[in-house]
Amino acid sequence: MRDQWTRLPEAVRTAITGRTGAVLSVRAVPGGGNADFAATVTGSSGPSFVKAARKASLGQDGPRVRALRRETTTNPVVPEFAPRLLWTVEAGGWLAVGFEHVQGRHADYSPGSPDLAALAKTAHQLQSTPCPDAVVMRVERRWEHLVPDVAPMAGDALLHTDLNPYNLLITPEHAYVVDWGFASRGTSWVEIGQIIPWLIHAGHTPADAERWVAQFPAWTSAAPEALDLYTRASAERWRRRAAANPDAEPPANLPIAQRWAEHRNARAL
After folding, report:
1. pTM, full prediction
2. Domains in the chain, start-ordered, CATH in brackets?
3. pLDDT over 60 at 268, yes or no
4. Alpha helices in the chain (DSSP H)
């Protein structure tokens, strides 16, 4: 990971070290797909988690920079969930963001894992937290190109939208939720729908995953037709991504989304 640090433009490294102090070590972290650089950077002032993204041009943010900006806006209004935002710097056509370093491990969503209790507690807490005014992205906008009517997804609940195992950091005292770049407002069941593929990925059957999420009233009270449509749209989203890159290995989420859609379709027959 040190080589990725040295490949950052000198102006960016200088700006970051102005906040961290002289860099002593740089350690890669899993995930971090929404940034060009994501690592635990230990400087003379201690460790911090640093993400950085390159702008599309000097005067134009690209999608990763926009996600980082949303995260810096959202972080201060979700202090009960997220590690604290420490600083932001812009230099050399990049945006860099530093967060409080949390010494934790990524969650395990496999069947029988004790971390499922932490996931459930976190999701329940999210479901009962009013959406702050700072969160303005509307989740249904992300599905407009896939479904004829996104109205069932609209609402004013706070949604993280990606409670995958890498985004839940477990410590002996607390479970932290990281990577708030796509925090949105919408109906509560969308958050639960986003969890189910991760449960399947971890070894649950689609039926078992749906039994697990039955603890959330938002899911069980939602119209089955809306859930079926959402599930098919999830599979279609990944199918289109695979079709857009036919020479690349198909996304791992594609067969998972297809299994879930087939399960719900079989239930409806």
Report:
1. 0.93
2. 2-100 (3.30.200.20), 105-268 (3.90.1200.10)
3. no
4. 2-7, 10-20, 63-74, 115-127, 188-201, 206-213, 217-220, 224-244, 253-268
